[in-house]
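Task: complex structure prediction.
Instruction: return structure tokens for all chains below.
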Amino acid sequence: MKATCWMGRNTVKVKNVPEPTILNDRDAIVRITSTAICGLDLHLVDGYVPTMKKGDVLGHEFMGEVVEIGSGVGNLGIGDRVVVPFPIACGACLACQNKAYSLCENFNPNAGIAEKVYGYSPAGLFGFSHMLGGYQGGQAEYVRVPFADVGPLKVDDDLTDEQVLFLSDIFPTGFMGAEMCGIKPGDVIAVWGAGQFAAASAFLLGAERVIVIDRFPYRLKIAAERAGAETINYEETSVLEALREMTAGRGPDACIDAVGIEAHHSSTALHAYDRTKQATRLETDRPHALREAVMACRNGGTVSVIGVYGGFIDKFPMGAVMNRSLTIKTGQCHVHRYMRPLLERIRNGEIDPTFVITHRMRLSEAPHGYDIFKNKQDDCLKVVLTP
Amino acid sequence: MNRWREDVYAYWHDFENLPTFMHHLEKVSTNGDRRSHWTAKAPAGRTVEWDAEVTHDLANELISWRSLRGADVPNFGSVRFSPAPGDRGTEVKVTVHYDLPAGRLGKAVAGLLGESPEQQVTDDLRRFKQVMETGQVVRSEGSPQGTSAKQLMRQHPGQPMGEDSE
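Output:
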């Protein structure tokens, strides 16, 4: 079958790989009908996430049709249409019982590597590094879905693939980012990174105003027109000054870092400092957005981190966090928790997630999709691939 | 692990279950009394075998065993089950002791245990938890055999196994 493979830093190829088979009796094989490229995939391709291996199949946002099920899967049938959450969770351990699915204690067979870097291991993820499992990803024709009786969400035919595909990651991730802000009536929420779903979700959860910070006018335009946010282009405006001005000198009630490890900075010198340290492996992650989110947040506010970090950061303004009683909340999304309620919001017409899609192409064109998404060409915000 | 102590004890108590999560074991057979016969995999397709007997068996709390005279690799061990605080399941603690013989066999057994016997017990316990909580040893494309420290260093790519890859 055809699959999008990581072949080394900055190299993505569509290759022929063997078709997946059932390894455990609670596995299912899903024929992919739609899959998307995520910003997280770019971090992998750019080489910022350790323990990738040549030939790894990428992709953790996908959906499709069940074509084979193991004998232990009781709740799915051949032909069912499913969206698959990107963390793989067993549903039985203490973390899963507490609905912290991305912290599943059983689903990373390579937990030993993660423990060396993180202390303890989180769950395994589809199409991610070997430190987080070494699972085949979904930018392919078929994928094996472990514990298929726990994760996949069945969807009816009245909704299109494009309407429900983002339940696999970015909509729940953005929603959890907004939920972690503990939004109260009247709150102003600032979001770094115009991925759209954190901003849209902040409104769904009752924010009074949402301010989105990015450097690409087309992304900010979508945030303004489709998510209803106010915007700041950090290449043109001092973010801290603008946010202070927009919030009567107090700062946003909560700040969401939806950028993560490959942030950019309008100051060439500051960007070069972190970029150099990253290139020489003195720090692994460039935390411009996070630092700014901390500095911008009002006293006693919350900084919600859904942008992905891989390892270590430098020059973190801990003094601001401590002296101003800030709360930091973070985590890979516990997607399973949000799929059903967000499906209902889609069905009720509260949100139409398709507004983020700018490009549709065949799976065989995936390398081009990666290229334009990474280099922000052709106003690319979200690429959906069909095998 | 997130299971009642009685269940965890009962599973271990049937030694024939042990190879499910102890990957170095090929087979354990019991005949209903306190005796058991163990077969372990050794390098180059060889096996190492021994007889053992249960020395202590406290229901839901402790099982200990030791190899009988004539074992290739004299060994003894125990597993202790205690309730985790706040009804959060069961804590399992394993102690194993091996007397490595000198000579070629000793080397073979050392190879079998890996560079770190402690790591092997850790892997066994992780797989035990997977089996108790989920009913199976968890496998990924990168680690198709399931959790194993040895495998961490030589991962299969995150794509299905098979012949027709490019």
